[in-house]
Amino acid sequence: MTLADERALLHRAQTSAAGFGELFDAYYERIYAYAYRRVGARAIAEDIAASVFEDALRGIRRVRWQGKPLSAWLYRIAARRVADFYRARTNDAPLDEFAHLTRDSIGDALERDEEYAAVRRGLQKLNASEREIIRLVYFDELDGDTIAALLHLTKNNVYVRTHRALKKLEMILCE
After folding, report:
1. How far is residue 79's CA from residue 38's CA, in Å, rounded to a whole number?
2. Mean pLDDT computed over 47-56
3. Please, where in the chain does CATH 1.10.10.10 lie?
């Protein structure tokens, strides 16, 4: 979506319920995926995504076009909701969250975990800003403009930081 399209979408979302529905349809899946990758539970990610759009609905009329992707605004809200989740979290996970797992899906999950364990360990050795830039680029698959707006960087700086983080991760993995 071009910035001109996003500006028009913002205007429609601010002036009609149908316009806000378009905003929801355009971004819900990405916001849900962002939340899911951070909390790892479908129901919690759905709740976070829903709260993001509730917050967006309440605040949409106050948003002023700044020439940045709307997704950056939504991801900032989502990041706050994920942080809220972890602040309020208890160590007691309800057992029904795991009821859907079968023996095969558990085996697949364990195999996948083994395959990615080295990468996860490597990511943990990066600092928080390096991990975040890699998550946004490779896991959330955001474009440079959106990441730049989200992190208050220039697009060129996003590419430089991504390159540096990947080089550092590569060195960690080769140890």
Report:
1. 9
2. 94
3. 101-175
Per DSSP, 95 falls in state G
CATH class of 101-175: mainly alpha
Residues 6+ apart with CB under 8 A from 173: 118, 119, 122
CA distances, 129 to each of 123, 133, 134, 135, 173 (Å): 11, 6, 9, 10, 18
Judged by DSSP in three states, 175 sits in coil
Extract the tokens encoding 15: 């002036």
Classify domain 1-99 at the CATH topology level: Rna Polymerase Sigma Factor; Chain: A (1.10.1740)
Looking at residue 109, what is its pLDDT? Answer: 60
Which residues make up the CATH 1.10.1740.10 domain(s) of the chain? 1-99
pLDDT confidence of residue 46? 94
Does pTM surpass 0.90? no
